[in-house]
Amino acid sequence: MWSRLCAWALAATFPSSTRLPGLDRVDPLPFVQRLRREAPASIRWAFYVSALVFALTPVLTLGIPWPAFWLSAERQDRHAQALSGHRLYLLRQVMVMVKTIGGLCWGADPSVRAAFAMSAYAADPGTFRAGALP
């Protein structure tokens, strides 16, 4: 459940444009699952809570008492914009967390890197949790 909610929040926050693929065209679920396995607990929980708050707060930003995943793409965008500039610091931090994790996911995707004429990253060796960092 958490992984799907987080993947949806990333896709809603990073929509595609005419020139660049967004996370709505790229499947962010494998990235979120890898983040779940490899990230420290503080990062995971901050991201989970941020995705949940993003999903439940359209009532604060748009005055609509529905979860954000029931909104149209245009309203989701307005909700994300309003949450990013909300007067309460903690609500702004929700979007900072979602955008930070989303940027990591989006920037590492091979199709996004190809749109910028950059080569894809090599496969992750998975050594972070093993303690084999240089």
> What is the N-to-C succession of helices and strands?
HHHHHHH
Mean pLDDT over the residues: 91
Q: Which sheet architecture does the biggest sheet show? A: none
Q: Structurally, how many domains make up the residues?
A: 1
Distance between the termini: 35 Å
- Overall form: globular
Please work out how many helical segments DSSP would assign. 7
The count of β-strands is: 0
Please explain how this structure is put together.
The chain starts with a helix and ends in a 19-residue tail after the last helix. It is globular, with a radius of gyration of 16 Å. It has one domain. It is built from seven helices and no strands. It has 134 residues and is mainly alpha-helical.
Structural features:
134 residues, 7 helices, 0% strand
Q: Which helices and strands occur, and which strands form pairs?
A:
Blueprint: H1 2-13, H2 29-38, H3 41-56, H4 58-61, H5 73-84, H6 89-108, H7 110-115
Helix pairs in contact: 1-2, 1-3, 1-6, 3-6
Brief summary:
The chain is an all-alpha fold and 134 residues long. The protein is 60% helix and 0% strand. The N and C termini lie far apart (35 Å).
